[in-house]
Every structure is written in structure tokens, then in C-alpha cells.
User: Fold these one by one.
Assistant:
Number 1:
Amino acid sequence: MSTVGPRVLRVGERALLVELGGGAETEAFHAELLRRRAAGALPAVREIVPAARSVLLDGVADPDRLAAELPGWEVGPLHARAGGTVEVPVRYDGPDLAEVAALWGVSVDEAVRIHTGTDFRVAFCGFAPGFGYLTGLDERYGVPRRATPRTAVPAGSVALAGPYTGVYPRSSPGGWQLIGTTDAVLWDVAREPAALLAPGTRVRFTAVDVTAVATARVATEGVR
Amino acid sequence: MTDRAVAVVRAGALTTVQDLGRTGHAHLGVPRSGALDPAAVRLVNRLVGNAEEAAVLETTVDGCALRPRCAVTVAVGGAPCPVRVDGRPAAWGSAFRVAAGAVVEIGAAVRGLRSYVAFGGGIDVEPVLGSRSTDLLSGLGPEPTAEGTVLPLGADTAVPGWVDAPPWPGPPDELVLRVRLGPRDDWFTAQALRAFATRAYRVSPASNRIGLRLDGPALERAVPGELASEGMVLGAVQVPPDGLPVLFLADHPTTGGYPVVGVVREADLGAAAQAVPGTAVRFVPVR
């Protein structure tokens, strides 16, 4: 439970930017906004856009009034079970997997175990429709972006940058470290919501790659 | 052919389907999109008897040519331009009837940049997330039109005998944009804020549906370093590292990592979207 007030900044005529201390506070505040909206306890707002350390409220009828109320809110803790859970099957065959494992100081198999053993949560979306920024990896597993971005990253690429994991919903240029590939449909405008990885969604990655299958077969044959 | 559709004969520099935008999905990374001059869209729709939010065509600089496959009511507004039907002059800014198979030629803008063409019944392409707008940043909605593109039309509408339309003020010689400073004005030096509020900028030819790019005094930062990505609104004036402000228009990204010095009033954005490259721009801070 936290009563430390966030900083509220006016953005033009109809929007407020709520600045929070860090990623965890931002996710908790975003969850609180969604709870209040679901309960009918939030004035009409057209857009609620979480980001790394802030939440933008756009299309607010009376921004002055809401700005005065927000800092006094009791923001509940982020429930580990809040939001739906999505399982994303991944072939850990990305061209940067070995480099990521080296940055982490572990073997490739261990890197896959770390990634599949982590509970992720979509903190926010950006860059492209359906591109979610997933948090959950321990701080020490942060990785830099590639020095030279790729001109075309294939759709379904599972990638790391900074503290985040992301999955490219469609082919685009990108500088994230590619560790795997998924066939999951990240973006489908006929689905509600269109983004598989919408903010607040909990995510687990599971390994389905050929290496894992081969390793399993080798293990049953008793060859190490 | 009696189907309700219109074929594009000449697409011009950039002619896209636009309505009043795709709101409510910014948290998924979906830009608002929609017509850059929404007042013009509302007016041309009312002229042909449509709901104000019906989808229309937005042209850029040099117009387009269209051949309806059915008899239809048409109105052209936004940037003034010559209009011809099978070579004969037709009215700009009021509704007229076009026979099936006739060619409607929307000429180059005489003033301003973007003309709007409404058809009775509206352009009836499949909506994507509640809007028919072409979003050039993220690729949602229909592709920009090309020669041969066929666009379905909705059911014909009754033309209102009388439409209360204020005279169009026309694109300004000098664009005056009312701006509310913040949320990141404190990232700039006092001198930069003074320059922003008092000096003249010019519309850069690199402007597009994503943003109006401006040439003029570069704004010096008081706070170095990087800003964590945050949500962006329509009309935000973002300042990248070169110090030259970019005014975000309809296809702007939903989040951004450069500080926003101020936000322009939505009512002023239609004029901004009609300002030709080279137009003088002044920012006037308001509360």
C-alpha cells in the first residue's frame, strides 16, 4: 500500500501525464486506473497510455479536477494474478542468443532456462501496434541494444533490450537482441484486444525449439 | 455497372481514405490517425448529407481524379482547388450530382495542401479498430489509393437542401499556433523558451501526416540526458536532439522519448495541416 503521491503534469487542454517513481509503481498505478475504470469510479477518459515511468490520460473532460484528485489516491499493490496470462511458445534459435548468454555469463541452455523460468508482465506498448514491453527479468539480465540495428527483423522475433523483452508483431527495422522466434499471432485486428500482449497481461515463454527436442532425445539415449 | 463504388483514375501525390480517427487504442501502440483537417471533413460530409464522421478522401497538393460507378452526390472542400466533371467546371465547397461513369477531376490546391472529397453514403471500406482511416505510421486501414483502386460507397443519402456552413477562412499566410507549455518545458533553457514564444519558424518541406516539421531557432536543453519514453498527444511539440520542434499531427507515434515543450490547441491543428512549406509559424503561449 502506498500513499506517496505521484507528480501530475498538464499536457495541453485535455490530458494529464502522471509521473511515477519507477516501473513497478507505474504498473501498479496503471492497474489501479483500470480497476477504477472497471468499477465506474474514474471520470470518462479516452486513452490510458502507460509508459516506462508514467501514465498518460488523454481526452479527460475535467483535467484540473482529476489532477487535484490523483495525488491523494490509495494505490493498491500490484496483484501477481491481476490480468490474464498468455503462454508464448518460442523456438530459442535467435542469432543473438549466444551473445546474450555470454553477456549474462551463462550457457545458452541456462539462458533459455532463465527466460522460460521468468514471470513476465506487459508494462506498456509502443513502437508499433501490438509491440509490448515486457518486464520481469532480473536487473542483472539487462542487455544493450545492438550497436547497429537490423534493417529487417522478422515478425515473431523474441528480443531483448535494456530490462525488456519484446516480440516483433510484424517485420520492421530493429536494434533489439534476437533470442528466438514464435508463431503466436501478436496482432489481429479482428481479436479483442487486437494485441496478444496488451498492457497488464502476464506472460510466460515456453521453449519448443528443435535444440530442446534434440537435447531431450540425447538425454533418453543416455549420451551426454 | 450499377455497384456503389468509386474508382481512382489518378491518385495524385498522396490520396488516402480518412475519417475522424481511431481513438481508444493508443495503449496498444495504435496512432489516432484520421483527417488532418477534421473541420473540412465535417463540412463536406454535411454538404452531401452524410454523418460528419463518414469516411472521405484526403488529397495532398495535386488532387486526384475519380470515376464513380454509380450516380452519386459529391462535395469537395478543405484546400480550394478547381473541380471538373467530364471537363466541365463544378463547384468547390458545395454539393453536386455526378452521373455513373463520369470523371471527377480534383485539381491541384490553389491555396493550402489538402482537399477533401465526400461521397453520398461515405467510403465504405471495412473499418479497422473502429475507423476507416489510412494510418501511414503503422500501416493500419486501407492502403493509400493508387490508379485503379476501387472504393465501395455506402447507401446513397438525401442531400440536405440547406447546410449552415461558415465561410472557410483559408490557409493563413502566417500560422499562429496557440500552445500550452509543458509537460517538459522545464527541460529547456529560459532563452530557448523565449525564442520558442517570440521567434518565427517556417514549415519545412519534410512535413507529413505524422508531424509538421519546423525550421527556425533550435531550442537548447537545460536538462541533458534521456527522457524515459512517455505517452504523446495530438498537437504535442516534440523537440528532438537537433532542437527543431516537430508538431505531432494525426499519424504521430503513441509514445516518444524526446521532451515535449508544449501542446498546440486542437482547434489550430487544421490550419497547421493546410500550411504549405515555407509558411511562417508563430507559437503563442496560452493558459
Number 2:
Amino acid sequence: MEITAAAQPANWDGGVSPFGIGWSKLMMWLFIVSDGLVFAGFLAIYGFIRLASPDWPDRSRMFHLDFIALMTFTLISSSATMATAVAAAREGNRKTVLRFLLLTVLGGCAFLGMQAYEWTGLIREGAGLGSNPWGAPLFGACFFVLTGFHGSHVLSGVIVLAMTAVRSRMGMARAEGVELAGLYWHFVDLVWVFIFTLFYLI
Amino acid sequence: MTTYKIYWATWGVLLLITLGMIAAGGALTGKLLLVSLLLAMGVKAALIGGTFMHLRSEQLSLILIVTLGLLLVGAILFAGIAADAVRVLRLSGDGG
Amino acid sequence: MAELANPVHQPSSFLRRYIFSQDHKVIGIQYLITAMFMGIVGGLLAMLMRIQLAWPGQNMPLLSKLFPDGMAGGVMKPEFYLSLITMHGTIMIFFVVSLALVGGFGNFLIPLQIGARDMAFPFLNMLSFWTIVPGCLIMMGSFFVEGGAAASGWTAYPPLSAVRSAVPGSNWGQTWWIVGMALFIISFTMGGLNFVTTILDQRTKGMSMMRMPLVVWALFIASVIGLLTFPALLAAAILLLFDRHFGTSFYLPSGLYFGNHLLPNKGGTPLLWQHLFWFLGHPEVYVLILPALGITLDLLPVFTRKPVFGYRMTIYCLYAIAILSMIVWGHHMYVSGMSPYVGEFFAIGTLSITLPSTIIGVNMIASLWGGSLRFPAPMLFVIGVIVFFGTGGFGGLFLGNATSDIQLHDTYFVVGHFHLMIGGITLLAAFAAVYYWFPKMFGRMMSDRLAKLHFWLTFPTFYALFLVMHYQGLAGMPRRYYAFDKYEFLSGMVKSQVHISLVAFVLGAAQFIFLFNFFWSIFRGAKAEPNPWNAATLEWTTASPPPHGNWGEELPEVHRWPYDYSVPGAASDCTPQTVPPGIAPVAM
């Protein structure tokens, strides 16, 4: 509860703060809901297309699940380092914050690199937005749009985290700033959980 | 250090579930596979949201707003359009 | 945010104060004036449509200079007519009514009515306005790109919107349309996040949720609806862009022919877009209409001198409408060939939404009962809203029911209905709000005489226009046709087209009275008293116009709900929210 008290500016004396958190964090949560619904929209569209397609290609033919598992491992690990960085920021441990933020950025970059590798392989095999060699006409479009939109979120997350790391190095980052960046990063990880299950496995 | 520990314990559980999900693809089939994968996805999402994003220690109203806002609206959207997807499949003639 | 605690810190340069301002009041007025400008544009488009419908094939050499493609030789091309209906709808719904009611009054009123110094995120607020400006410019600019503006209707149904070679407007005009809409969605999301956070976390001492004015409640719920539904359209619009430019076929089925050649697309269906569009499209109607109802309910007690009827019930009904609005979008798609079982579900949902709507309508009428009514211009517009809400709503019963909708869907019945509802109600409420809060914005009054003239030229003409369209629709006149003189069964309608157009010109011209009144009163209007309407809400307890930071050194403290009018035992018939219970009894 100390954090929530610190997050509230000194002049705040309104009726009640309905959620017991500062307004920056509240807005971050609302933004996550809103942004999450964009992904919900994409996933619903993908679900619609899956249901409306007479057949859907067998994923084990074009994806190497071990490799996807490695990507998931990277992203989950970066989420754990991020959580550690947030906890360190709360304790005011600047050195740990910086170290774990950089580890998180590294994890994000590794994920992006692996995704680029995965994309290149599939494009070489003839997959594209308009067509793909494995059957269902919209398979390629769904794959590239879903993973691409998630990838763009990872990229923006990496940029935000890098900026936070620089600010933290310069001693300008507040604990709340690290926490908000962390919320966004975990959200990106959360979306991957859904994409991983719904697109690669089911 | 106790807070750090819980994150890395969560990390371990998440990894185990992920490996289990991939293994399930070879072991189970049909509806059972679908349900277990969706359940595992739900558990993973709850772990990330609850522990990493500290949703567990927030007030109930915030938890409800976030989870209901995301899940309910997403579910409504999907439920509303899913029936038509099946219909499109039937009308296209390929689905019999 | 810390500097906000110091109220005297006003930026001094003109640019920071009036152009790139972070003050919610300036931003609100900026939104309002942008909406007025876009309203003129959207209105002129409507006038062009009315000229074409009343006198098809009329030669207008002047316009061929402005639109050399669409009006080549001075005669309107059918494609250009389609662009006109598309852009009229888009501009009016997203860039006029949304901007005026949500952007304009949302920004201006929320901090003032809940006792905050500004929005929670002033910079985000400024960014939201300066995102909408390029959106407006892109929308208007699309008329002048190759092929002209988008021509697939404000709903942008594929394949017209997804196949670039379909009609001239399907080319760059449609792309610009999507970019403009994306900017609108981004701006609206930033604004909505700000509104919700501000209302939840920035209320002054004593201002509990159940002491907020109904207009703030309505804006709050409208913002929540917007935040929950706009993302689906954003996702859909991104895919539409992919379909147009990157070769996907999310919305395009196999076997489509355009100009005798087979398109390569396969696998998609336009039905998907329709679902996703209306998943936003229907809640958007409530995003527009709820603030209008909130304004109405907020103004009623001021001019009846008695508390609003059914405050709590109204709030519950706003919630009910918000929830129901998200499960009824399919009633726009009864004719799309959707599954009849789904159609049945949507019909039941739609008809149950009449329940909370009716309760709100009855609350409005009951708020009039037994009051001592006064009729300055804002009250006239408020009465107009109630009348439109009651009578326009009847059309909804026919359209919400799948059986009758399939007959009426593609006729002017729909045009008449939604112009009365989201055209009439929102515009009348916006006018009421401008006349009512103008003294708060500029410290001067608008001319009441001109305002009344404006009302008596707006309200009856609105009715004459759109009620007649209901009957045209019942007679089977299809909508979106560019000329009706070729159809024998509609020959009896030709005369009514001319009548409607003449009335439309009167309605359009009457709006210039309002514009003149507005800009003239900013400089020449009579000086306003501190509380010219004797209202109890919080914004009237500060100076007009309020200083930067809204309140002096101390934030106000709230002791009662906003509708303490004619409380027995109180000294005057209006007890402001800041009066402590010791001085006047608290009614609620």
C-alpha cells in the first residue's frame, strides 16, 4: 500500500479513489483493456475464419514447435526479469533495476530476432499475405497479421523499456514509471500466451 | 528477496505448463485436447496477470473491470459472429 | 501534475495559451469550433444531395470548378453522389456530433463539474485534439484525390471498400477515409482514457459518484462504451487496409467479378466486416446519444426549478443501455443473410433496450411535471430533445424487429429514423448546451432572441424533413439511390422530394443564425452574471470564464447532489452543491 500512497499527488483529496491506485496506473490498466480488445478483435476474426474454413493446415507441417517453445521461453523469461526489475525499483535498488531492465530488453530483442527468423523461413517456403502453399487461403494472412501485430507491440515495448533503462541509468526513472512499463511488457507476454495457444496449438 | 522468489517460481510453473501443452498435442486428441489447452491457457494468463502484473493484490473492483472488460467483451464479440461463421461454411458448399 | 496544485501558473504566450493549450476549457472550445466547421462542411454536402434529389441532372456550372471530376460539366455523376452520402455520414457522426458532444462538452464540463483543476493528463488531452485535426483535414482532402472521396457509405461495406477498382471512390479516397478514421479512433481512445480516469480519480472532496451531475455520468458511460468497442473497429480497419493494399482477402470471397475480370481473392466474407463494423457502430450511436440525454436531464431542473426525476434510476438505465448496446449490433444486419437464430437473439436484445430508454424518457417528462417552467432558448431545445426522443424512438420498434426491418431496411424509413434520433436529438442537445454554457465559456450571454428564432427554424423543419422520410420509406422509396425520376412506382414521390429539399435549405440556412450568434456574442454579447441561470451545479461557483486551474487557492468542497432546487426550508429555490448542510437542508 505504500506504493499506491506514493503514486497519489499531494493535492489529491477527492471523495474516494475507487481502485486504491494512482491515476497513472489506472489509466495504464484502462489502456491495457482497450489495447487488449484490439487483440481480442483480431483473435475473434481469426476464430471466425477458422470456423468458416472447410479445412485448416496442420501446423506441425510448417512450424517447428520446439522453436516456438523457445520463443515462448524467451518471452516468459523476459517477463520474469521485468517483474524482478519492478520489485527492485520499489525497493529503490537502482543497480538491480538497470541490470534486469537490460536483461528484459535483451529478451525482447531475442524474441524479435527469432520471429524474424521464423518469418523468413516461412516466406522462403512461399507463404505470403495473399497465398500460402498449405491450403486454407487465409492461413498466411491470419498468421502474418496476428504475429506481426504482436511483434509490433514487442518492438514498442522494447523501445519503452530501453528508454526506461536510460532514464534509470540517469537516475530519472521513478518506481512508478518502471512499474507502468512493466505492466505493458507483461501485457505483451499475456497476448503471446493467447496467440501461442490459439494459433500454434489449437 | 521473497518477492523475487515468487516471480521465479511463477516463471518455472509457466514453463512447465508450456511444455505440458506441447506434450499434450501428441498425447490427446479432439475435444479433450481443446479443453485442456484452453484451460492451460487460462491458468497461464491468470498467473501472468495475478503475479507479474500484481492484479492479485489489487482491489476486487479493478480485477473485475480488467478481466470482465477483456474476457466478456471478447467473448461477446466472438459469440456474436461465430454462428455466422458456421453458416458461411455451410453456404460455401465445401463444408457439406 | 504537481504544478497543477498551483492555480496561478498560466502560460503566457499566445501559442501555448490558445493553440497548443493543455487547458481543458480551451481544448473543449477548440473541439467545439472544429465541430462547427466540420458541421458546415457536412451540411453543405447534404445540401448538394438535396439539390440532386429534387432536381436530378440539374446543371450547376459553379460546382464543376470545385469538383472537376464529380461534377464534370456541372452535372452530378452517380459516383459523386455516393461520395456525398458517404462523407456526409462519416463527417456528421464522427467529426461533428462526436467532436461537439464528447470532445467539446466532455472536455469543458468534466473537470468543472467534478471540481478538478484539469483533466488527469493535460498533455494527452492536447495530443488527442491535435490528432483529430489532421483526421478532419484528411477526410475533407479525400474529395480532391484521384477518383474522389470514399463511396462505400459511412459503414464502408466491402467489396466496394475493399476492392480498389470497384468504383472511383474505392481507390485513394477510401484509403484516406481509413486513415482519417484511424486518427479519429486514436484520438477518441486518448480522450476516453482521460475522461474515465479523470472522473474516477479526480473528483473533489465530497463529490461521490452519486453526487455527479447526470451529464458527467452520461459522458463517463459513453467513454467506457467507446473504449470497449472502438478497438474492434480498429482491428477491422487494419485488416481492410491489408485487403486493399497487401493482397489479403479477409472480406473478399472467391468468385468476385469486377469489370469482367475475376478477382484472385478467396476465402473471406463481407459478413465479417459487417459484424465488426456494427460491433462498434451500434454502441457508437449510444456514445452520441447518452451525452445528449445527459445534457437534457442536467438542464431540465434548472428550467423547471425542481430536482430531476429518478436520478438513481436514470443512472441504472444508462448502465443497462451500455451493456445492452453491446449485444444488439446484429439488428443492422438482418438483411445480410445472417443466421436467423442469431437474428432472433439480436431482435430480442434490441427490443429490450427500449425498456431503459423508455424509463429515461419518462424520467424526462416527469421532471417537467409540477415544475415552474421557464422557457429561455436552452429550455426550448431541451423540450425539442424530449419530443424527438419520444417520437423518433417509435421508428426504432419497427427497425429493431427483424420481421418489419427486412421490409424497411433499405428504404428512407431508416434515413428518417436515424436522422431524428442521432441527428436531431444530438444536435438539439448540443445547441441547448452551447446556449446554456456559453456564459461559462466566454463570460457573455448569447442573444436569446436570435436563439429562439434559431429554434423555431430548426425544430419544425427537422420534423418536416425526417418525418416525411418515414412515409417515403413506407411507400418503398429505396435509400442511397442517386435519382428517382426513372422509376414509375416512385413517380408520386417526385413532388415530395422538392418539398423536402426546400425545407432542408431552410434548415441549413437557419444554422447560420446560430453561427452568427455564437461568434458575435463572443465579442459583443451582454456580460453574463456569475450564475445567470441560477443553477446548482459546481461549475457556476467559479468565475466565468474560469481561470486557469478552474478554482482559486482552494478546491471546492461538495455537500449535496447537484439538483437541490426548491428544497423546503432553504433560503432560495436553488442551493449550490458547495453550500454546507448547516445553511440549507440537504435533500439527498
Number 3:
Amino acid sequence: MTMLSPVAMLGWIGAVLLFLLALRTWSDGRAARRRARMGLAGMMLAMGAALYTHDVVSLPEMLSMAALGSGIGYLIARRASMRSAWPILALLQAMIGAALLLTAFAIDGNAIAFAILTPDDARLTGTSMVLLGLAKASGAIVLLGSLLLYRATVGARAGAERWLALLASLSGLGGVAIALLLLGEAGLAGMSGIVGAAGLALGLLLRPAKAD
Amino acid sequence: MIAPLSLLLIAPPIIAAFLLARAAMPRWRPAMVMLLCAMSAVPLAGAWIVAAEVGGAGPKLLSLSAILLGSIALVAGFGLVERALGGSKDDPA
């Protein structure tokens, strides 16, 4: 196992704590907004920790893609009607599923870079094969499920929360598989696990919509 | 792979998250689902790591596309949560 630097370790611990604080009891609107911002801060800290621990050779391309994506995301968030928030969230969840799938295929396409091959570098180890399959399956289910949910929620919100919570949980599970594939990324596994567990809890709590 | 000790360390936060989400007040559950949708962009951090480490044009392109899609979902997701909770000055509360 690679030894994490103290700075990176603090970053991951901070990110996990911020994610947990974001889920702490929401008493009123102000507290809810504060908690949501903690979630965002946790994500930013996780990205920083992820970049800090790796030798980045293509930083300009990565930052360009992140800036372009952030710009498009900002426009969506600013211009979208709040009445169509649930269908938009379903589409955003589909994007997360696609991102998960693409990440898994990128790992598969250059497996030698991630020390997940057998000692003779001939093929994936059994565990890696299972984890990669899990990441791909989660990504594909989230992508397809979210697109189906988008179709179902256009014009009607019934039951969207429950399914979105369960799809978010599955994204978390896929994130855990990706984190376990990447050498020593326990922080990322913890954060993805938090999303997976919270999504599962909310998905089980929210009742399915009754047909009128 | 992650050592079993690390797996033991990540178990408590995961259990805590399950219990915290279960304890959410019913009126805040839909908003919490919105936040969770935004937070589920966390595999984006994985995409950053993969893009940083991977070699070859094809895998690099795949990981950069993942960063693009994940960034859209992350920013739009948190932006929608902010608006839904009345935090944006442009929206009526």
C-alpha cells in the first residue's frame, strides 16, 4: 500500500467530515443551505486531495474540460426552471452514470498504469476484474435508469425522489469500485461509500408513489 | 488495492451516513435527495486521478470526457440545490 502524505490525508479526512456534516440534521432553510455548501466544499477538497497525490501530466487538458463543464453546469443551474428540477436532476444523474462508465473504460484501456494486472502483466487479477465489472455495471444501470426516469418525470414528479436516491446510491457504489481499483484511494472510497449509504437510506425511507 | 485496515477505517463514516440520512426530517427529505444527487458526482475525483495517471490517446480521451460530464453534473447539481433552498438572490424564496 502506498503511504499517503499527511497533507493529502488531512484533505481526505476533511472531505469525509464535510460530507458527513452536510447530511447532519437540517432544522431550517438557513441550516440546509449551510449544509449544502459543506457538501460542495467537501467535493472541492476531495478534488484537491486527488490532484495533490498524483503526478499530473495533462493538467491543462483536465482543467480545460473541468472549466468547460463547470460553465455548462452553471448555465443549466441558472437558466433551468425549478418546476423541471427533477427531470433535470435525472439527466444530471445520467451524466454521472456516463462519467462512471467512461472512467471504468479508461482504466480498462490502460490497465498497466494502475497496477491491477497479474505479475506477468498478461491480464487483470480476479479482484480487479470483479471491481471493473461492478464499476461498468453501476455506470450503465445509472445511465439507463436515469434516462428512463427522465422520461417518466417530464410533467410528473411522482416517485422521482425515491428513484433518484437509489440511483445516487448506485453511483456511490460505482465510485467505491473505482476507488478500490485505484491504488490506495481509501478517502475516495469513504466518500463514495457515504453517498451510497445515504442514498440507500433515503431510497428506503421514501415511499413509492401511489397510483391515483 | 486498499489494505483491510483502510477498509475498517472507512466503515464508520459509511455507517454514520446511513444513520444520518435515516434521521432526516420528512419535510427535508426531497431537498436532501437533491443534495445527494449533486454529491453523487464524487466519482469525478476518480476521473481526475485516472486522467492524471492514464497513458494512450483513447483512455485519455475517455477520462477527459468523464471529467467534462462529471463537472457539468457537479456544478449544475449544487446550483439547483442552492436555488431549491432559496439561496440564490435571483429566485423568489
